[in-house]
Design brief:
By secondary structure, the protein is mainly beta. It contains 4 helices and 11 strands; from the N terminus they run E-H-H-E-H-H-E-E-E-E-E-E-E-E-E. Strands 1, 2, 3, 4, 5, 6, 7, 8, 9, 10 and 11 form an 11-stranded mixed β-sheet that branches. The chain is globular, with a radius of gyration of 15 Å.
């Protein structure tokens, strides 16, 4: 049995209840994490749209390695809240680097929580369409001209569609037609 998740928020000593990641949601996500990351006791919020501003560049900088970076690759949980109150996001194991190609490992997965139902979508392993980050957008998945999860540079809207990379349903039940999803907040947590 894993130890309970300790939610520590770095921004202005914000208490856990000020974020959207509850201990219940963190435990649901943790069940799908690779063992070395499931053992992480601290999930530190390193970026919040609400507190740090609406900027993909700022979120990317928040993932940069520090002088006391662990020996193993980093791990992050991305959380998006839409205007219908749905929560969805991803788990990934790379620093967010703006590159003209896909990267990250097949350990990455997408997740969604609406009402009381949590669903995870692991990478299917059939391609390398995992994570794609440019100055204009952040995307996960691909393979059919769409993204499983896509956020624009100002993090004000997202899209989500089925892709063969994750075999996922659209992550926001309110926008299953693939239309733009108005984003209320984005949070990024680093696992320690």
């Amino acid at each position: 049995m894993s130890a309970p998740v300790d939610l520590f928020h770095s921004t202005l000593n914000i208490q856990a209840e000020n974020g959207h990641l509850t201990k219940e949601l963190a435990c649901s996500i943790r069940e799908f994490l690779p063992t070395r990351y499931a053992a992480a006791e601290v999930w530190k919020r390193v970026y919040s749209l609400y507190h740090d501003g609406a900027s993909l560049n700022t979120m990317c900088r928040a993932t940069e390695p520090t002088s006391h970076a662990p020996k193993y690759p980093p791990a992050f949980v991305l959380l998006v809240k839409d205007d219908a109150g749905n929560l969805f996001g991803s788990f990934f194991t790379s620093y967010l680097r703006q590159k003209p190609h896909y990267y990250d490992t097949e350990e990455c997965f997408l997740w969604t929580k609406s009402k009381d139902k949590f669903t995870a979508f692991p990478h299917c392993g059939q391609d390398q369409f995992v994570l794609y980050c440019t100055k204009e957008f952040l995307g996960f998945g691909g393979g059919n001209g769409k993204f499983s999860l896509w956020l624009n540079a100002s993090l004000e809207y997202a899209t989500s569609s089925f892709t063969p990379a994750f075999g996922n349903a659209p992550l926001s039940p309110a926008y299953e037609d693939g239309s733009r999803i108005p984003v209320i907040d984005v949070e990024l947590y680093k696992l320690y």
